[in-house]
């Protein structure tokens, strides 16, 4: 294992976060369409609708939540319709698959920074996208030292967001 021990403040200088994105859904959709065009793929109306639902939600959504919302515009939609769209959107880097909560969330910065850490609120599904290359390199070194090979470039961290934490504190006697 290579040693990458740095003072605590150094890793913070290289951490980049996208918990809330300032761009509108329309702008993000336009960026997604451009992204697909550059890659020679197509954001079909169904794929675009799934992405729109995720962008508008502001949190992660489960496949069946997406299916119910899809049926408002596409009454004949079935689970394979949603799963095919989700698979495409993940492959294109437009959304993230969140194993921690068995859901998906829109990538908030398609044309910008790489996100290697995803912090997922296990209560409400809110997601923060973080880019922390030093932490990720240290984690990868530790995984290799333990005799494993990392199979994804993203690491999910389960947490509780401040809003949910405050709600829990208010309901606890």
Characterization of this structure:
With 173 residues, the protein is α+β, with helices and mostly antiparallel strands. The chain has a single domain, classed as Orthogonal Bundle (Arc Repressor Mutant, subunit A). Strands 1-5-4-6 form a four-stranded mixed beta sheet, with no helix packed on it. A two-stranded antiparallel ribbon has the order 2-3. Helix 3 crosses helix 5 and helix 4 packs across helix 5. The chain starts with 7 loop residues before the first helix and ends with a helix. The N terminus is likely disordered.
Parts with pLDDT < 50 across at least 5 consecutive residues: 1-21
Task: Indicate the CATH class.
Answer: Mainly Alpha
Number of contiguous helices? 7
Q: Look at the structure and give the mean pLDDT.
A: 85
Separation, N- and C-terminal Cα atoms: 47 Å
Radius of gyration: 18 Å
Layout of helices and strands, plus pairs?
Elements: H1 8-13, E1 16-18, H2 25-39, H3 45-57, H4 63-73, H5 79-91, E2 95-98, E3 103-106, E4 117-121, E5 127-131, H6 133-145, E6 155-159, H7 162-171
Parallel strand pairs: 4-6
Antiparallel strand pairs: 1-5, 2-3, 4-5
Helix pairs in contact: 3-5, 4-5
């Amino acid at each position: 294992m290579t040693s990458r021990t740095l003072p605590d403040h150094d890793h913070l200088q290289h951490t980049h976060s996208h918990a809330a994105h300032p761009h509108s859904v329309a702008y993000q959709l336009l960026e997604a369409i451009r992204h697909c065009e550059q890659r020679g793929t197509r954001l079909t109306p169904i794929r675009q609708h799934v992405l729109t639902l995720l962008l508008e939600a502001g949190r992660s959504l489960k496949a069946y939540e997406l299916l119910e919302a899809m049926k408002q515009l596409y009454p004949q939609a079935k689970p394979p319709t949603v799963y095919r769209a989700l698979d495409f959107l993940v492959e294109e880097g437009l959304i993230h698959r969140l194993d921690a909560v068995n859901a998906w969330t829109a990538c908030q910065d398609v044309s910008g920074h790489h996100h290697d850490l995803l912090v997922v609120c296990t209560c409400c599904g809110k997601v923060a996208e973080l880019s922390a290359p030093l932490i990720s390199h240290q984690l990868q070194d530790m995984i290799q030292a333990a005799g494993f090979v990392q199979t994804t470039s993203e690491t999910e961290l389960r947490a509780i967001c401040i809003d949910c934490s405050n709600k829990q504190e208010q309901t606890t006697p």
